[in-house]
Amino acid sequence: MLVQGFNMIWGWISLGLLVFALAAFVNAAVHRDDAYRAAGKQNKGFWLIILGITVAVNFFLGVLSFLPILGLVATIVYFVDVRPALKQVSGRGPRRRGSSSDGPYGPYNGGR
Hints:
single chain, 112 residues, mainly alpha, two-stranded antiparallel sheet
């Protein structure tokens, strides 16, 4: 009974990692190649290869080796670093107006 529950938890974790990596792969495939260059990130082919390998490893191996952990790191890096940069370059991300020193009522001038 306990082993079945443990295997079921590992199955759900494995499925979650697969879906997460697949979402990153699809998102990487949707963006244009020149957006990667404009954002100053690795090219589209690099990310498609890395994320494609991650999807394949998660599909065939599950979470029974260290390779899915490496793939999880690559997927997190894509979602946290690359995807926001691509969205900003593509004009789909949040646009900031003003500078980073702006307060709620306008620019902060340091009490001058």
